[in-house]
Amino acid sequence: MSVERMFKYEGLGNDFIVVERPTTQRDDAADAALARALCDRHFGVGADGLLFVDPQTPSMHVVNADGSIPEMCGNGLRCVALHYARREPAQEGPLLLRIATGAGPHDCHIERTPGQDGEGLGHRGDGGAFTRPPSRAGRASGAAHRHTHCRG
Fold it and tell me: Is the pTM of this model over 0.85?
């Protein structure tokens, strides 16, 4: 499998590589091999796992760095919600997303908060929010922090 677009995110200390790919191209054996190669911290990009997202429909397929496939990953979901939110044009009010996962759909509530560094995105679920910190050399390209929540 070739990877044309990938992004690196961090959520609560876990870092992930987000790969855009239609869900129709899912191949668990190839995905596991790709995860082991890309997630290797010495010879790859380095990450705790890969998060495959469909460019058209909000969804998440998780593959851990060792190639295992869990149903769900909460910190990964935070990163995927932020990834989809960044793709949406600016709008007034919250962005509501239902993201399909192996454990069923999860509803995410994303808000744009004025005065934040970067795109001004906040991500809320059951009362939490996050702000994107200023970029730092060597850090992931996006960060989803401890007050980020989605409901499943």
Answer: no
